[in-house]
Amino acid sequence: MNEKLLFLIPLLPLAAGVLNALFGRRLPRALVAGLAVGGVALATLSTVVFWPLAAGEGTRATLYTWMASDNLRVPVAILFDPLAASMSLMVTFVSTLIHLYAVGYMAEEGGNARFFALLNLFVFAMLTIVLADNLLLLFLGWEGVGFCSYALIGFWFREEKNALAGRKAFLVTRAGDVFFGIAMLWLFAATGTLSISGINQAASALPPDTLFWLTLLLLTGACGKSAQLPLMTWLPDAMAGPTPVSALIHAATMVTAGVYLLGRLFPLVSLSPAGMATIAAVGALTAIYAASCALAQREIKRVLAYSTMSQVGYMFLAVGVGAVGGAMFHLYVHAFFKALLFMGAGCVIHLTGGENDIHRMGGLGRRSPLVFWSFLAGALCLAGAPLTGGFFSKDAILLAAFVAGGLYFKILWGIAATTALLTAVYTFRLLYLVFAGAPRTAGASHRLPAAMTWTLPPLALLGVFGGLFNLPTAWGGDGALGEFLGPLAGEQVHASHALEWGLAGLATGLFLVGWLAARWRYASYRGERPSPAKTFFLHGWQADRLVDVLLVRPFRVLADFFWQWVDRKGIDGFLEGGGASLMRLGGALRRLTTGRVHSYLAGFAWGLIAILAWMLAGFIE
Amino acid sequence: MAAILFYILAATALGATLMCITRRNPVHAVIYLVNAFFALALIFYILGAPLVAAWEVIIYAGAIMVLFLFIIMMLELAPTETPRGPGWRRWGPVVVLSSVLLGCTVALILADPGGGAAIPTYYASPREFGYALFHEYALAVQVVSFQLLFAAVGAYYVGRSGPGAMETAEDREGSP
Amino acid sequence: MIVPMSHILIFSGIMFFLGFACVLAQRNLIMILIGVEVMLNAVGVTLAGASALWQQVDGQIFVIFLMAMTSAEVSISLAVVVYLSRRKKTIEADAFSEMNG
Question: Are B104 and A612 a contacting pair, CB within 8 Å?
Fold first, then answer.
């Protein structure tokens, strides 16, 4: 097969998106939806068809050279290796299901063409990130997902809070992108190339200091897109967008782009032990921060947003200890069950007639069993119920952290284990408050479109049985994903089967404790009891206020200073002052022309004095 | 003898001029000026210009000063009580200014070494004068006569009143 | 022998500046014109003295031209003074200051 056909994978959604953007308004709804779904579905098909090309070292394909100047070469090139192939398959498949779901979700909304065009463009940008062989091309996709995310979060922009949420997301991720940009420039200066394979090869020649700072810069860029500390304030607010957007962008794809970047540049990043330790610490701390906040949230989607933040923290932790295979495993399984949970949340919101607050829901288990069972499957995966996909993937990460060596990583493992407990608690809290008990609102019961309900079970199955993708040898499996990724899976995790069993038992114990605690507290609804602690966690440890005080207010003061003092008084004052003083000078000079003859005659007299004085002076010398 | 006469006449002329310029009543000033012109005419004669002396009296004192008097009388600018002239507030700075100028001029004059020698006597007879006038300066004479014609026409036009006169701003404001 | 040229020049200089002072100090338009006459006459004396110094008649010829020009100038100036007095009913020089500013 011609390897240039690999470009079909990103270009098919792009084509569908462009067609919808240009002509979608004049086309019937069904055609718009069909184009959108068709674009991504064909991309999925292409990925499957081209799967053999990914084996071993992968395939490289170049379409044309985008930029070439001096020794900078930026070809539009694809690197289709196992990492890219598996990621693109996950992205396209989940996108297809979510597009189908969105057809049902947006059936009664306006702006159809814009929505589907942006969704397709987003998939194109994400696939560019996944498949790019060149950092600049990856950055193109990086910025593309940022823009599409902004446009989609603020999709219902006529409500100001939605537009503000979109803007916040854009600005915070952009702040991370600045660091990524600096890293790119530095990498080019240090290695002379922007090609990912080239950089990975040249990485071993760089001095350790450079490697550490580069890792830190790349980490900050990844934190922006993946909503990790300290650039995480945008993700909870991003839930203002439509649910398919939350499911696709903020569960499965964009937030994992950071992990993927670090995975792609792992040969570079792994050479800096301090950098890896920082990555792991960021991941673990974000995980526990987000889990603590999820415990106090009231809106169903915000619980899931913080949950996403927490789980992506796990992935960062895995990358930090060297287990890229484990991180990718968790990434895929998480994508399945988190997208499922978001889609289920969308169904729940639909069922309650637009209600978002879980304290006002209840008893939905009886109203739609399909939604309930799918949601339950996803929730069990999230909480790490034994033998689900989530259990195996989380366990792999915990094991890798435990055996990473040193007190430092043991502490991080402890934090991660505590987070697992908290995860179980908030997951079951969500389940009990939404589905169990008696309904707390008499909401009108909306009929759910088939597209919304029947896209849930496939994801549920993938989530529950996802463990089979990478079953560890201790359980009788062969670690298929790890084998497939080969050297791209990072460092091998060497642990005895006894240790694995022990940690698995511990994880099961944490799951049970969390479930029982949630059941004791939330199974029968006792009403809300607000407290300062709950408010603190509800507002994300007041992170927004911290950012406001540290960054926004000084910036406003500075901007005000430049506006009032430098621009108004300084520049305008200078110009106007110059003009005014010239006018005053003119006014003063005008007083010389009195219109009276005697003044002019006096002028004659003075002139005559001057001339005579000059002549005298000439004579005296 | 001529030298002494010159000094006496110079003093007279200067005194009369001084009186002239400090008068408040224009008629008095004109009379004093006529006095000064007579002295000047004699000075011209001493300097050897008898024709110029005659013309000084005929044209200057006889025509120009009389014209001044005519206009003053016509404009009724010499009321029975003397009008207020400029006081020391106006004269003070002018005196200072003029003295400074005069001082500079005198210094310049005295700085010239050639000015100390006395002028030899000279006498230009009318015949000599006329010959030079119409021989070398004939063109200038023609130009001057044109000039006098223009002046006459201009003075007639400016001074006209009644229909065909120059429009004043007040006339313009009155008419619609 | 008559007086040295410097004496004539000093005499005409004093007369000239007397006329100049009259022009500067007096507020009456007529008095200004009289000052101008004085100045012109002073110049005439200088010219006649110079003619005697150089023993030529040209200086005196210039005096006659001077007188001719003066008479032309006086007639027009007095016609203008008449016109102005008809306009403003006064001949104070300060009254005619429309060209100020």
Answer: yes
Measured between beta carbons, the chain A residues lying within 8 angstroms of B108 are 612, 615-616, 619
Whether A616 has its CB under 8 Å from any CB of chain B: the answer is yes
Adjacent-strand bridge partners of A72? A69
Q: Which of B49, B79, B109 is the last residue of a domain?
A: B79
Q: What is the DSSP string of B13-24?
A: HHHHHHHHHT-S
Task: State both tokens at A434.
Answer: 């939404």
Subunits next to B (3 or more Cβ pairs <8 Å) are A, C
Q: Which two tokens stand for residue A321?
A: 């200890």
Interchain proximity C79–B132, CB inside 8 Å = no
Nearest CA in chain B to C58: B132
Q: Position of tokens 């009543």?
A: B25
For an interface test with C, the pick among B158, B161, B166 (most C C-beta atoms closer than 10 Å) comes out as B158
Contact A315, A321 (CB under 8 A): no
Residue (of C32, C45, C69) closest to B20 by Cα position: C32
How many CB contacts within 8 angstroms connect chain A with chain C? 29
Which residue range(s) make up the domain with B140? 125-159
Long-range pairs of B90-93 with CB within 8 A, sequence gap ≥ 24: B90/C25, B90/C27, B91/B22, B91/C21, B91/C25
Regarding whether B66 and B135 lie in a shared domain, the answer is no
Contacts of B104 in chain A (CB under 8 A): 609, 612-613, 615-616
CA distance B37 to A411: 125
Under DSSP, the state recorded for A353 is T
Look at A424-428, B56-60, B109-113, C93-97 and tell me which has the smallest mean pLDDT.
B109-113
Burial class of residue A321 (count of CB atoms within 10 Å of its CB; 0-12, 13-18, 19+): buried
- Distance from the Cα of C22 to chain A's closest Cα (Å) equals 11
ipTM of the prediction: 0.90
Model confidence at A81, pLDDT cuts 50, 70, 90, reads confident
Helical residues (DSSP H) of A436-530, grouped into ranges: 450-453, 456-464, 480-485, 497-522
Q: pLDDT (tens digit, 9 = 90+) per residue, A190-212?
A: 888 888 888 888 888 888 888 99
Q: Percent of chain A, pLDDT > 70?
A: 98
Whole-angstrom distance, CA of residue A265 vs CA of residue A452: 37
For residue B46, tell me if it sits in a domain: yes
Looking at residue A121, its pLDDT comes to 94
CB neighbourhood size of A136 (10 A): 19
A619 and B108 within 8 Å at the Cβ level: the answer is yes
Residue B97 in domain = no
Please, which residues 3-32 of chain B have a Cβ atom closer than 8 Å to chain C? 3, 6-7, 10, 13-14, 17-18, 20-21, 26, 29-30
Judge contact between A435 and A375, C-beta under 8 A.
Answer: yes
Contacts of C65 in chain B (CB under 8 A): 137, 140, 144
- Domains of chain C by range and CATH? 5-91 (1.10.287.3510)
Q: How many CB atoms lie within 10 A of CB A176?
A: 25
Q: Which of residues 44-103 of B touch C (CB under 8 A)?
A: 44, 46-49, 51-52, 55-56, 59-60, 63-64, 67-68, 71-72, 74-75, 77, 85-86, 90-91, 94-95, 97-98, 101-102
